[in-house]
Amino acid sequence: MTRRSVLIGTGSALPKRAVSNAELAAQVDTSDEWIVERTGIRNRYIAGPDETTGTLATAAARAAIAATGIEAASIDLIVLATATPDQTFPATATSVQHALGCNGGIAFDVAAVCSGFLYALGVADSMLRSGMAGRALVIGAETFSRILDWEDRATCVLFGDGAGAVVLEAREVGDDDKGPGILATKLHADGAHGPMLYVDGGVSTTGTVGKLRMKGREVFRHAVTNLASVLNEVLGEVGLTADDLDWLVPHQANARILEATAKKLSLPASKVVITVDRHANTSAASVPLALDAAIRDGRIQPGHLVMLEAMGGGFTWGASLIRM
Ligand code: ACO
């Protein structure tokens, strides 16, 4: 027998306010045409004063729990991925835990920027399999609008706010069980590339929150190479090929990165879940937002083999293969 983490529900939440490219173009020197052609983004959601990473995370978590039918109180682990926490401390995960009324278990944040959800999923899966917890909420939630330089047209048009969540349950299964569960996860980081994508502030350095800075071209180049490599690494671990995948649910940074990565794997575009047009890049929230969208619209079905992947600041990158 072996212990496996099974995904039993997903949920997501977006801020009330949608902002189109045309609306942005009225404030910044850009155009709908430039943004769509270079990124595929048509719309993003921006948090209002009463919406925070914590409130969005809580709403996504509630939706995920409702999708499972379990009691929130039975959740004994919350791992929340974010680069935009409500406060420097305590961890936003603890305020979500309190709002859900499942106090007493484990709750903490993970910081791996756009790869945060993959890192959080990997940590939660390990803790469930080791027996430290039985039911986990894994959340990716961000309010990147609060760290954007709204004068920098090269970055401010790319990002949006939102949250996505999944509920995982530990189950005992036979060693050669072909049922649902997380089959393999691989995570990587290479800090040499920190200066390519960072925030120019911090608690221990400037004492300020700072704004996002990015060398877009270099990030693009590394993203395609690193993502194709980690996807093949995960597939190799379980003895499968890209042909076996039903769906690829990638981090939604840029439609061109998604197309180039799929092409590198010879994966048809019809198997790639794309939400970047609606949500823009929501960093750690983008993978669970896209996963929830494709489950709720019926594309992803029980039994499907789904690959999640992401790459972000650090650089950090990773991928996880799940049987639904
Ligand atoms: N509107 C109009 N023009 C713009 C805008 C804008 N919003 N932004 C930049 N430009 C101009 C530039 O000033 C430049 O003008 P110039 O030629 O007169 O100097 C021109 O467009 C080209 O700029 P580049 O930065 O070279 O454009 P590029 O084709 O590389 O596209 C982009 C930029 C979209 C950021 C691309 O590099 C990219 O997608 N990179 C990936 C980065 C990414 O998605 N990061 C997200 C975080 S990391 C992650 O999630 C993986």
Counting structural domains, the number is: 2
Q: What is the overall shape?
A: globular
* SS-derived structural category: alpha/beta
Bound molecules: acetyl coenzyme *A
Radius of gyration: 18 Å
Q: Give the uncertain stretches in residue-range form.
A: none
Question: What attributes does this structure have?
Answer:
324 residues; alpha/beta; Peroxisomal Thiolase, Chain A, domain 1; 2 domains; five-stranded mixed beta sheet; 10 helices; 13 strands; 32% helix; globular; binds acetyl coenzyme *A
Write the layout of secondary structure elements.
Layout: E1 2-13, E2 17-20, H1 21-25, H2 32-39, E3 43-46, H3 53-68, E4 77-81, H4 92-100, E5 106-110, H5 116-130, E6 135-143, H6 153-156, E7 161-173, E8 181-189, E9 197-199, E10 212-214, H7 216-237, E11 247-250, H8 255-264, H9 276-279, H10 286-296, E12 305-312, E13 316-323
Parallel strand pairs: 4-5, 4-6, 11-12
Antiparallel strand pairs: 1-7, 2-3, 6-7, 8-13, 9-10, 12-13
Helix pairs in contact: 3-4, 7-8
The structure holds acetyl coenzyme *A.
Q: What do these coordinates show?
A:
The protein is an alpha/beta fold and 324 residues long. It has 2 domains: 2-173, Peroxisomal Thiolase, Chain A, domain 1; 181-323, Thiolase/Chalcone synthase (Peroxisomal Thiolase, Chain A, domain 1, 3-Layer(aba) Sandwich). Helix content is 32%, strand content 27%. The chain has 10 helices and 13 strands. The strands form 4 sheets. A 5-stranded mixed beta sheet has the order 1-7-6-4-5, with helices on both faces. Helix 4 links the parallel strand 4 and strand 5. Helix 7 runs parallel beside helix 8 (255-264). The longest helix has 22 residues, at 216-237. The protein binds acetyl coenzyme *A. Acetyl coenzyme *A binds at residues 30, 34-35, 38-39, 114, 153-154, 157-158, 197, 214, 216-217, 219-220, 223, 251, 253-254, 281, 311-312.
